[in-house]
Amino acid sequence: MSTSELPARHGEPPAGHAELMDGVYRWQRHFYDLTRKYYLLGRDRLISGLDVPAGGTVLELGCGTGRNIVLAARRYPGARFFGLDISAEMLETANAAMDREGLSGHVTLARGDATDFDAEALFGLATFDRIFVSYSLSMIPGWEKTVAAALAALSPDGSLHVVDFGQQEALPRWFRTLLRGWLRKFHVEPREALRDVLESESARVGASLRFRTLYRGYTWLAVVKIAI
Fold first, then answer.
1. pLDDT of residue 182
2. What order do you get walking across the sheet with 219-226 strand by strand?
3. 2 has pLDDT over 50
4. How many CA atoms lie within 13 A of 211 on its CB side?
5. For this UniProt entry, which residues form the secretion signal (predicted)?
């Protein structure tokens, strides 16, 4: 059995997907934020809607280069931030960004699998006031498990915030075809069932769901709020 075929232990990233993401981003991480700002729409709207309570805790699943955490930390300076990513390459860039922005003392980053993580072991916290996932579910195999894992790690009265590619419902077919072809080059697949999964998971835990379609279906933005 090769290394990529070995099953991951609880909380450890699966070797095959981790290696794939490291390969994809080994060089891209150096210019990732410069290019993605033009088509990863809705991220700043997600951050502005986090409404983090004073002294609150915020976890990003699939934190990548740390771009979102930096912006969120500026907006909510009293909060503590945590980031999880499966790619060691991306985390290297994210850690450098935290050092550069003077945020190392307020941000903790760890390598792990967003579908199966042990928050207590990684961060010393079992739950968080806010958890967000920005354009990562479309890259995660078994992404439905990430939704369930995130909800399990929410504090009472916490909320899960998700932004990702929609189905481009009101956009021209030629645009959808070009976009899907481009995204496949980076192992990205917009999740057609995202709303259905969020609805079923919200019902399972007794949470409310607010789901918005932006930019003619280019982007889907959702907030799952735990009811207390």
1. 86
2. 107-111, 80-85, 57-61, 128-134, 154-165, 219-226, 207-214
3. no
4. 17
5. none
Question: Residue 150 is part of which domain span?
Answer: 3-226
3-state secondary structure of 227: coil
3-state secondary structure of 93: helix
19 confidence band (pLDDT: 50, 70, 90): low
Are the CB atoms for 222 and 161 separated by under 8 Å?
yes
DSSP labels for 137-180?
GGG-TTHHHHHHHHHHTEEEEEEEEEEEE---TTS-HHHHHHHH
Tokens of 133: 């996932």
Q: Return the residue matching tokens 């991220």.
A: 43
CA distances to 15, 19, 109 from 4, rounded to whole Å, are 5, 8, 24
Find the CATH number of the domain harbouring 112. 3.40.50.150
Nearest to 205 by CA among 149, 128, 142: 149
Strands 154-165 and 219-226, bridge-based pairing: antiparallel
Examine the pLDDT at 173 and tell me if it is beyond 70. Answer: yes
Pairing of strands 57-61, 219-226: unpaired
Smallest CA-to-CA distance from 159 within 68, 225, 69 is with 225
Q: Tally Cβ neighbours within 10 Å of residue 10.
A: 9
For residue range 86-111, list pLDDT tens digits in order.
988 889 999 999 999 999 889 999 99
